[in-house]
Amino acid sequence: MNDFMDAVQEMPQTSAAPATEMAPQHDLESLVREAVAHAIAEKFSAFQAENAKTQNALEDREDAVSARENALFEREMRSFAREQLLKRKLPEALLDALCCKSEEKCLESLDKVEKAFRTAVQEGVVERMRGTEPVRSDSQPLDTMDDNAYYHATYVK
After folding, report:
1. How many structural domains comprise the chain?
2. Domain containing 71: what range?
3. Is 135 among the domain residues?
4. DSSP string, 67-104
């Protein structure tokens, strides 16, 4: 029976020994998990930073391409407007007065500018044709004036 009691007493010691050995293994597993989690977090944050940098570079390139496309479109619309001015026999100096945002707006503004230009030219022609009335001196009839008085009464203003 002593042997049995000795065996029973040894049993808790032997069973306790693996429990104490388990604790360091459990600590080791938790340390490994923490190290892996930390490494994953570092890699993920590095990935996010690289992704943000790549995204910013992509947005910058898209902005640059968009600016070049807008500049090209604006040059094309100015060229179109210049052709329309020449086709309608209008001065090229009116190009700056046109809206060149789209073809429809360009044609609309061209119609308005052409109408205003033609009206102004017509008014100028009418004004020029109208002239001024001759200056007359009612003090003396023209047929009784000498040459110098006639000249000053009709030509000199």
Report:
1. 1
2. 2-130
3. no
4. HHHHHHHHHHHHHHHHHHHHHTT--GGGGGGS--SSHH
